[in-house]
Amino acid sequence: MSFSFCKQFGKDKVIFVTKEDHATPSTIELPAPEPAEGVITKDGNINWSCPCLGGMATGPCGVDFREAFSCFQYSKAEPKGSDCFEAFTKMRDCFQLYPTVYNKANGGIDDDDDDPLADALPVDTSSEVPVKEDQPAESGAPAPPAEVVPSQTSSAVEKAQ
Known about the structure:
By secondary structure, this protein is α+β, with helices and mostly antiparallel strands. It is built from five helices and four strands. The strands form two sheets. Strands 1-2 form a two-stranded antiparallel ribbon. The chain has a two-stranded antiparallel sheet with strand order 3-4.
């Protein structure tokens, strides 16, 4: 005849059971599971660890995100959040400084990982080098601010001349 027993290994407690112990159904009653909390807790606070925020509350712009989100959540203005323009502008500016972290549209992959500001400058199409706004592109026309100059095919260049 075999019997059950317990053995302590440091902080761990190991329980050895027999086949007969498993033959009877358990009499333990577990409490009903609580519904998972969302972004807003029962007491009205913001749950910053909610996976629904996708980690936006942390990282290089986490503080700016939390300020903008809090402003919107607790806004009494009509329409809601209309008093949060500065906070959202600050958050957006921070996101633009870290395109590889916050650009989820292309999976967080950026073409130019070395310079986070490269996307903010116009590109000279002949060399794919960012140019300053006051510096004209090689076509002779000034480059538009904060846009990429579209590359031209040789036939389009010939027609323009």
